[in-house]
Design brief:
- The chain is of the alpha+beta class.
- It is about 40% helix and about 25% strand.
- It has 2 domains: about 120 residues, Sandwich (Immunoglobulin-like), CATH 2.60.40; about 70 residues.
- Strands 2-11-10-5-6-7 form a 6-stranded mixed sheet, with no helix packed on it. It has a 3-stranded antiparallel sheet with strand order 3-9-8, with no helix packed on it.
- The longest helix has about 60 residues.
- The radius of gyration is 41 Å and the shape is rod-shaped.
- It is a single-pass type I membrane protein.
Length: about 220
């Protein structure tokens, strides 16, 4: 301590105070965890994050891949101020940056999916001094056709219920319309019959008066 200059001591104390004032927290990663896509299509691997520290030039994003059938982890994508695509391997010319760091989005696009793309994709974000945190994972399943999920069944049920309600409303409206039309026709017939009856009675009355006058 005695061998250090006063200036170095002040800088050391200032650094300790700044570290105490700037708490280090873990970066939180959010992913869909499970993703299913059709062979030959494109998929967006969504990865968003939250960080106590503001986003700066030191922020890095690393995407890696673990094959479903085992094997070593493979590099997919890296971002540090600019995107760095893989120069070789299965993901060459098949992955692009699709994130927006201003919105805390570190997503990527994976093009022309293949069945050997099945596996787990990891998203790691470091935003110094926030460098710790759980790595986000997405388990991708490439299939021939997308299976119906609970969301699809729910949407189908809601759509069917809405269609049924519309049909019921249409039937009720048509029923009321034809019912009113039938009542109108009956009323018209009653009026017509009444008019003819009154005309007949008037004719009979005229005949009766004529006969009385001739007598």
């Amino acid at each position: 301590m005695y061998g250090k200059s006063p200036a170095r001591v002040v800088l050391l104390l200032l650094g300790i105070q700044l570290t105490a004032l700037w708490p280090i927290e873990a970066v939180e990663i959010y992913t869909s965890r499970v993703l299913e896509a059709v062979n030959g299509t494109d998929a967006r691997l969504k990865c968003t994050f939250s960080s106590f520290a503001p986003v700066g030039d030191a922020l890095t994003v690393t995407w890696n891949f673990r094959p479903q059938d085992g094997g070593p982890e493979q590099f997919v994508f890296y971002y540090h101020m600019d995107p760095f695509k893989p120069m070789s391997g299965r993901f060459k010319d098949r992955v692009t940056w699709d994130g927006n760091l201003e919105r805390y989005d570190a997503s990527i696009m994976l093009w022309k999916l293949q069945f050997d793309d099945n596996g787990t994709y990891t998203c790691q974000v470091k935003n110094p001094p926030d460098v710790d945190g759980v790595i986000g994972e997405i388990r991708l399943s490439v299939v021939h056709t997308v299976r119906f999920s609970e969301v699809y069944f729910l949407a189908l049920a809601i759509g069917s219920a809405c269609a049924l309600m519309i049909i019921i409303v249409i039937v009720v409206v048509l029923f009321q319309h034809f019912r009113k039309k039938r009542w109108a026709e009956r009323a018209h017939k009653v009026v017509e019959i009444t008019s003819k009856e009154e005309e007949r009675l008037n004719q009979e009355k005229k005949v009766s008066v004529y006969l009385e006058d001739t007598d």
